[in-house]
Amino acid sequence: MSYEDEGIIQMDAEELRELLVTGAKEPILIDVRELDEYAEAHIPGVPLIPMNTIASLSAELDRSASYVFICRSGKRSQNVALFLKEQGILNVRNFVGGMISWQGDIKSGLEWVVKDVNELKKD
Questions:
Q1: How far apart are CA 119 and CA 44, in angstroms?
Q2: Which CDD domains does the annotation name (predicted)?
Q3: Which residues pair with 94 in a beta bridge?
């Protein structure tokens, strides 16, 4: 069940699973871990934008879109959400518990490493 921490909505694994099942265009899910962590195991279909590249791409993100950020434990993704909220992207959420709490499907390899934020737009 969602709750708020530091002004950021925290989503649990069940809520994230429901989003994946519906296949909704938004919120846009983004993994913010490092390449090696993502390659080891990630949620299928979720793109990677490593935390250390978020600042350089933040101006290009759609400010009207909604986002959910995912990391290993929920700490880095919380920091990304806080940073982007400060940059004017207001509809941001954190997957609390991160990948260590995820019990759903996982995939290995570098499935979708974002090079251009336009890749995130779903038709």
A1: 16
A2: RHOD (cd00158)
A3: 10, 69
Which two three-digit tokens encode residue 80? 């990304």
Q: Is 24 domain-assigned?
A: yes
Count of structural domains within the chain: 1
Could you tell me the CA-to-CA distances from 60 to 19, 51, 86, 110, 117 in Å, in that order? Answer: 24, 15, 15, 22, 7
Opening angle at CA 99, ends 93 and 102, nearest 5 = 95
Residue 42, Cβ density class (10 Å: 0-12 exposed, 13-18 middle, ≥19 buried): buried
Of 71, 80, 92, 96, the catalytic one is: 71
Whether 119 is covered by a domain: the verdict is no
Of the chain, the end-to-end C-alpha distance in Å amounts to 29
pLDDT (tens place) for every residue of the chain, 123 residues total: 789 999 999 999 999 999 999 988 899 999 999 999 999 999 999 999 999 999 999 999 999 999 999 999 999 999 999 999 999 999 999 999 999 999 999 999 999 999 889 888 765
Does 71 participate in catalysis according to the annotation?
Answer: yes
